[in-house]
Amino acid sequence: METRSLIRWFEQTFDWKIGAITLVCLVLIWLIGHYGVKWLIGRLSRVERFGDTTHLIIECAQKPLTVVIYAMGVTEVLDYLNAPKSVLGLTGQLFQTWIVVSIGIALYYVTPTLMKRASTIGQTNILKTNAIMRSFTTTLLQVLLITVIGFAVLDIWNINVNGLLAGAGLTGLAISMAAQDQIRNFLGGAVIIAEKSFSIGDAIESPSIEGTVEDITFRSTKLRTPAGALQVVPNSTLANEPITNKSRVDVPRITLNYYLNVGTTEAQLTQFKVDILNFLKADQRFMASHMEYQVNVLEITSTGIHLQVNGPLSDMGIEQINATKADLNLAMIDMAQKRSIKFVQVGEMMSGDA
């Protein structure tokens, strides 16, 4: 019956004149929705007093605004043609779905910028002080947004959400049993955020991983290893391992890096390290009460040896930190000369590696 009514409406309504008018109207709607909105967004994007966040919101609004114009225009055309209620209803549902999805996509992509902007408000803002909380909250909001869009689309098409949820009970149980690892990873991420054991940008180390934290998601934490590789670690792994946060050492100290000639022998290097440790122990400006003196070889290349010295400071050393650093550098030169050890420039080591 619906098909017959549609055919009858089409035969009674359309002739060459009505068809031409309809075509012209649709072309005008497309021109306004495509080029008109594009021109408007371009003009607004060039307004200098708007900040970066406002410009991003304006750019993301282009697609939803275009869809709204298409929907309004086509609806007016169908109303002018006295389209059957079934056609108006179906067209309305299609355009409502398109609008909701377009707005959802725009909000999805603008959420990270809005969260970053929110983190700059106030002095004690938790999003400002905890980068991982900001990243995790952003991901959570995006997931909630997708969920809301899904329910909104179902509602537009008059699909009973309660019936779907009731019917999905056993399915959800089966899925939850199959997704135990994902649940553990999510809970592990929550533990990491709650304990604040590390944040984005911190250098961390555990029995199984080492690197700098770049991001945390529901499932995993992304690290950049010392070799420059990207390592993705399940949150459950980090939540169940002891973590050393190298970026949160509260002991005041001096950390200096030296680069020795590759011709330095093992015996020379060993004696040199002993000389440095003896110097640190003898100088009252250094104190190893909460942190040991450290002289470590970090890297050996074809052109040099990277030596790092960590000297925890006493109260006197903190007050005279610049003079202490200068005296340590002079002492290093003197001790190196006694051991016939030569220094090389950082650029020489880097060019040798390349």
TrEMBL record:
Mechanosensitive ion channel transmembrane helices 2/3 domain location: 140-180
Transferase among keywords: no
Pfam families: MS_channel_1st (PF21088), MS_channel_2nd (PF00924)
Topology class, membrane: Multi-pass membrane protein
Top-level lineage group: Bacteria
Matches recorded under InterPro entries: LSM_dom_sf, MS_channel_1st, MscS_beta-dom_sf, MscS_channel_2nd, MscS_channel_TM-2
Protein name from the UniProt record: Small mechanosensitive channel
Species annotation: Weissella minor
Phylogenetic placement of the source organism: Bacteria, Bacillati, Bacillota, Bacilli, Lactobacillales
